[in-house]
Amino acid sequence: MRVDVLGLQAFISIAERGSFRAAASHLNLSQTALSHRIRKLEESLGTPLFLRANRQVSLTAAGTILLPRARRIFEDLGSALNEVRVDVREGNEQVTVGVLPTVAAHCMPSVIAQGAATMVGSAPATIAFSARPSGGWRMWHSGST
């Protein structure tokens, strides 16, 4: 089964706004494009989702059943995408510190050790650093591979 995500998004927007015009504006679509998405979704489901009357729309019985589930699908999808983004960001933490070479030689090893302990916590990680000719040290942390 293929899920029509754009059709569901259009359906939710129309149901929440009560009109194709308002939903099209919200989604930055033409009313024709929005109508096409809904027609395609309704054809795939085999039933109309809206009662259309004089520039106003209301949900059919099928639309009433679908709306809370469609909202939940988008909430779950949004949560899943946010979790993936957080995991990716946490796995790519990077800190850049610029110091004079004399300070780097004496202070940076302990600073790096303290920073590594703070960044890593209990998760296995790789810590790397390099001295750069400009006087900067680069330290990064990534989760285990």
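The record above closes out task 2.4. Task 2.5 opens with a second protein, given below.
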Amino acid sequence: MKYIIWFFFIITLISVICGFAFNLAYSKKLIGYGVLGFFFIVIPLFSWYRWKDKNPKDYMLNKENLDKMRKREGDKRR
């Protein structure tokens, strides 16, 4: 999966660079497709890949997690 994300990232980056570097009739389309590919393919794949085995509740700031953090840091504000 990591290589698929890298592949799409390289393709979108090349598309944007070619759109800016070459003066073609479809340069703006290359830039647009590169940006769309980045935001609708690369970012969601990367987010899914990084978060697939993690529990989002561990990263939410609720009363229980704040108390755990304060207990670990030795804070007396409970």
